[in-house]
Amino acid sequence: SSFHIDCGSKSSTSFEGTAFEKDGGVVGAATFFVSQSEAWAMSSTGAYLDNADVSDDYTATNSSILSIPDAEVYTTARHSPLSFKYYGLCLWDGPYTVTLYFAEIMFTDDKNFSSLGKRVFDVYIQ
After folding, report:
1. Which end of the chain is least crowded, N or C, by CB within 10 Å?
2. Edge-to-edge order in the sheet of strand 83-88
3. What would the DSSP string read from start to end of 71-113?
4. Which residues are in the Malectin domain (predicted)?
């Protein structure tokens, strides 16, 4: 059994010949949803308290033009102020191969405050 997730995408995409399922569920301060295929689920916790806007967007969208094959897989990403997790559902005991693809789409290179940043990932597979 295998599954492929396009994190934050509103539509399914293809990357390197593999179909990735969309991750377009509505996310809020405390969210749990199961994918349409029921192969995986996602949970997210935390609220952005920086303004009075209650409709915080938990999806980042790339504003740069990418001239690489299958660029659409790098156009959206999920983010969360506290916790963000994916769960594989109904997996059998045995070995699995996990591949993660990362691209920086939040920080720009335009020499202003938004170009400064650091990413920290804690990846747990159990």
Report:
1. C
2. 30-34, 40-45, 83-88
3. GGGGSEEE--SSEEEEEE-SPPSS-----------SS-SSSSG
4. 2-126
In whole angstroms, give the CA distance from residue 24 to residue 35: 9
pTM, two decimal places: 0.75
Residue from 82, 24, 28, 23 nearest 57 by CA: 28
Angle at 92 between CA 90 and CA 95, to 5 degrees: 130
Q: What are the average pLDDT values for consecutive 10-residue runs of the chain, which has 126 residues? A: 82 84 79 90 82 68 78 80 87 88 70 61 76
Q: Is 99 exposed, middle or buried (0-12, 13-18, 19+ CB in 10 A)?
A: exposed
Distance CA 9, CA 28 (A): 16
DSSP element (H, E) containing 59:
strand 59-61
Three-state SS at 114: helix
- pLDDT, tens only, 13-34: 888 888 889 887 777 788 898 9
Rounded CA gap, 70 and 19, in Å? 11
